[in-house]
Predict the structure.
Amino acid sequence: MSARSSLRSPKWWALAAGVLLLAWLFCLPRNLFPDTPYSTVVESAEGELLGARIASDGQWRFPPADTVPQRFATALIQFEDRHFRWHPGVDPGALVRAAVDNVRAGHTVSGGSTITMQVIRLSRGKERTLWQKFIEAVLATRLELRYRKRSILALYAAHAPFGGNVVGLEAAAWRYFGHPAAELTWAEAATLAVLPNAPANIHPGRQREQLLEKRNRLLKRLLEHGDLSAETYEAALEEPLPDKPLPLPSLASHFVERCPAGERTRSSIRYSLQKAVEATVDRRSDDLALEGIADMAAVVIDNTSGAVVAYVGNSSPYRERPGRQVDIAAAPRSTGSILKPFLYEAALEEGVILPRTLLPDVPLNLNGFTPENFDRQYYGAVPAAEALARSLNIPAVFLLREYGVPKFHARLREAGLSTLTQSPDHYGLSLILGGAEGRLDEVTSAYSALANNPSFPAWYTFEALKEVNRPDQLDWRLIHSVRKAAWKTGTSYGFRDAWAVGMTPAYTIGVWAGNAQGQGVPGLTGARAAGPVMFDILNLLPRDDRWFEEPYEGGQSAQVCKDSGMLATPDCPAEEMLLPPAGLDSEPCPYHASGEFVLPPAMEWFYKPYHPEYTGAKRKTGSPVQFIYPQNGALLRMPRQLDGSIQGVVFRAAHHDSAETLWWHLDGSYIGETTLRHEMRLTPPAGKHTLTVVDGEGNSAFVSFEIAS
Ligand SMILES: [Zn+2]
């Protein structure tokens, strides 16, 4: 069979047609815009635009939406492609009309391209030649097979140029009109419909007149087509063209920075709450800036979902200062006392203490670590709940030693504190006093999880923290809230970080104040700088008078000593209390052994002045004499004076009977005697020593310690 005859065979024609059909079927790439970078777009929980970041190629190009707002779609179809709804991607009539127009004008005045063909052109970015137009037409017919008309319109709207670095309808609506595309007026929709045809016309100058003329011509056509009423038409003609591009909304800017790049994110941020929290933080921060406290951050979490509903990474972005760009809500900062509630809750859960167990508050030296309370006082013995409410440091250190640093460290990591990067040994007991760093967002989240925990240990923690009558420098005149919150403050060493975290059953609010650059400021305390802001924000939240409910189940009834807060012995004045189950295995009260409430001498020495009802021992029980400072095994350093001389260390002892005389012996040698106040300043040489005190009846106490070389 010759080639000639084969061409005449219908079989070969069918094969050729089949090949062409296959080629057509596979001619369109799966993704039309594979390497197109998009802006990062972040919306509130309600769908409002919070903020956006420019795409990596410097264009404002929002990620494609599924649909196109009706007014724009109508205006665009009327302007670009009147038969769009019916044609298969190519409009032969329009092509013929365009050809005739162009011949008449002597140059190209109209392309005759359909919207579908323009989508193809936008995706390929090729020159405008007849051959390219032919390819665009073929691909357009294929695109029509793949997508519905609505999706083709959406593709066009997302990638059309709108002048300058504005690409896509959504970015254009925001940049030129300051609102979403869904809210475009007819005049705005018409402006944006004609703009991709001549995007340079948006620039000021004579071309703007052409743009206005084009817009008005389109409005006229829409009127004639019955798309808008005569009144709407008249009003639309009055609308001016947009001026220079507007800035995009910039709420929760640091939160926006944290969202995935190049994507549209529907966040959990609540739009109006975010706005109000930002305003509050800015106002408070501007006031504090006068005192040298430049920066502030705040985070609000919905306890039920654990979602962040407001996030301020730093205050007043427009106030000039170094560090204003820093997102401090996500920066590691010294935690001060802000982790204490977690220790209280953990110790309750494991039965290390009961809610009001007396904790020692006496001078402490643990291997050279000598914590002090904020007010540098000692209270002898303080119920754990009160020690937490007053944020006393020494009882917290005693409690952490009882509970165990490694266990607490692990618990904090489990609660989501990613900043605890060092080993438990590295932090030691200072872990509870700000030795570790924490991020406001993570700390607030850990509190929120606590607030959402319906257990007895958590409930006792809220109860302890709702005590607001606390001696920690809070100026209540600055606080206008009558709302109830369980809250805790923190102040880091050197007044560098002020924290306040408050919980209600529904929300947790975390506030940090200080300087992003790290410098400390006298008066920068959690209660003063962060507390009032926390209460301001509390007032912005939906009113809710619920309080944390005592858990229905999980509590064990037990008799608890009224004086020591520990499990009652038959000698104790007792009351019934519901305890976490492990509490039943906690230690019984050791202070009522003889029917009287008697604290060890060192605790008693500091406890008595604050407790006039305390009588102490009437009968002789145990040793009446005890060292207050140092404890056994202490490591002491000898402070030097400016002139180089050694100042010595003050050793202190206490006796139940304030009239007693004590005789002092260092390493077996008599060194002196004391009455009433049993204190002695000594300068023993470096090395290990033993100090002994003896009273008139032969009762004695001794302490072994080491002087550091
Ligand atoms: Zn007791």
